[in-house]
Write a structure and sequence with these properties.
With 119 residues, this protein is an alpha/beta fold. It is built from 5 helices and 5 strands. This is Response regulator receiver domain-containing protein. Keywords: DNA-binding, Phosphoprotein, Transcription, Transcription regulation, Two-component regulatory system. One of its GO terms (molecular function) is DNA binding.
């Protein structure tokens, strides 16, 4: 079973993604901010991480920088899922090593297809 970590502080997004990915046979882990995500990653090695940029405590960019320092997570695909839609935000996300940069609002069905295309 593939593992996915969803990191977002918006409960409605987390709930819909958790439900959909579980239906698609993923083991789902949830974090509400970057700090919580980094704690989960100490014990779990997901195949994919869906990461919001704007979150309390540790934002998505800083979280990704920490993830990239961990050799155990080299195989992990990173998808930014964010409302930050300026060209410089997208460039920053991709230059930090994200595999995809998806803008909110988004299609859950399309996001699942994009995740499955990455792994």
């Amino acid at each position: 079973m593939k593992k996915i970590l969803i990191v977002d502080d918006e409960p409605n997004i987390v709930m819909s993604l958790e439900y959909t990915f579980k239906k698609n046979n993923f083991e789902v882990f949830i974090a509400r901010d970057g700090q919580e995500a980094l704690e989960i990653l100490k014990n779990q090695l997901p195949d994919v991480i869906i990461l919001d940029v704007m979150m309390p405590m540790v934002d998505g960019y800083a979280t990704l920088e920490q993830i990239k320092k961990d050799e155990r997570l080299e195989h992990c695909k990173i998808i930014f899922l964010t409302a930050k839609n300026k060209e410089k935000d997208i460039e920053k996300g991709l230059s930090l090593g994200a595999n995809l940069y998806v803008l909110k609002p988004f299609s859950v069905k399309k996001l699942v297809e994009q995740v499955q295309g990455l792994i």
